[in-house]
Write a structure and sequence with these properties.
- The protein contains eleven helices and 14 strands.
- The strands form two sheets. Strands 1, 2, 3, 4, 5, 6, 7 and 8 form an eight-stranded parallel beta sheet that branches. It has a six-stranded antiparallel beta sheet with strand order 12-11-10-13-9-14, sandwiched between helices.
- About 35% of the residues lie in helices and about 25% in strands.
- The protein is of the alpha/beta class.
- It starts with 6 loop residues before the first strand and ends in a 16-residue tail after the last strand.
- The structure holds guanosine-5'-triphosphate and magnesium ion (MG).
- Magnesium ion binds near residues 19, 20, 50 and 95.
Length: about 375
Amino acid sequence: MSPSKPRYVMIGGFLGAGKTTAVARLARRLSDQGLRVGLISNDQSSGLVDTALLRSKGFPVEEIPGGCFCCRFNSLLEAADKLDRTTRPDVFIAEPVGSCTDLIATVSYPLRRIYGERFEVAPMSVLVDPTRAARILGLEKGPQFSEKVVYVYRKQLEEANIIVVNKCDAVSESLRTRLVAALEKEFPKARVVCCSAKEGSGLDAWFDTIDHTLPENGPAMELNYDLYAEGEALLGWLNCTLRLESDAPFDANQTLLRLAGDIRDRVSAKGHEIAHLKMTLDSEDGTGSLSVVSLVRSDGDPDLRESLLDRVDGGSLIINLRAEADPEFLKIAVEESISAMSGGLRAKMEHLDRFRPARPRPIHRMSGGPT
Ligand SMILES: Nc1nc2c(ncn2[C@@H]2O[C@H](COP(=O)(O)OP(=O)(O)OP(=O)(O)O)[C@@H](O)[C@H]2O)c(=O)[nH]1
Ligand SMILES: [Mg+2]
């Protein structure tokens, strides 16, 4: 990528698909090529694991909390302005909320039509977690979201210019082959590529595809906003920040892994499907390093994505949980898991938000691209 005007690259996909991992990979690659990057994270709420994670890697990040890009279109531009003032990025990489769709009509087309002088808008990639996608497309059995959430998931794939089957390191060759065939058949508009954002394989082919795919101008995808709003609102959202203290130093990584397992057990015991549980513990020792744990389905295992080498005696714990469940239930489950933490840990809640996403009300919706 060697843009004459800054590029705007959007990396979408459902909750837990690996967007933030991929954003960090792409940002690193572009920085290594001497390009300046500016990252934009987005969520329905504030106190984001993703922002903490990306900042800990040294990238400039602007966070847009309180709604998706389509509903906060002006905030998206303000975020780009702020990054321009500090970093003057050659490439903006934006991660939309994982429950959001219709981004071509509400973000890409308006950016191209109204701000075409300012940005070169790249085709949109939509990442999938292969285990989740195989269940949604009926290739494998396992715990599943309900029909309206699946509607939103499928709509994300329908509008993709590039579908990226991520986490290929974690699934068999045979599942990957069947999944690619099913995606190509059901979503013929998209190019389908495979990669592992975690291990770094397949990224060149994907980034080349971004560079060599022409932006589309076709009619916007049909979308039933009532169904979309209902599907999104079936997901409970919880963000909280706590202060942890202990008289004796403790292993932050093991503490987060145990806490994630305990929250999973309480949520899955009631038959609710987790979309993404992610947590960071910042010991605030001045090094900027974090312990980070994620869990992307109710029958999955917590993944220690970043670890703290030394034992700590406290720090700031952020928990972001998205699951198909009542937000009040999620609050109780998280509070119970925190109370059940052993090892003489004391936790003080500093901030807690829980809600269902509000109906999406895009600022712009364009039925076709610039001609
Ligand atoms: N095995 C494997 N795990 C991956 C890969 N990419 C991401 N993950 C893991 O998937 C989990 C979710 O990754 P994120 O990058 O946070 O996913 P996301 O799409 O940004 O999630 P949300 O922001 O909540 O929508 C983490 O445990 C990652 O370590 C991959 O290529 N392989
Ligand atoms: Mg993310």
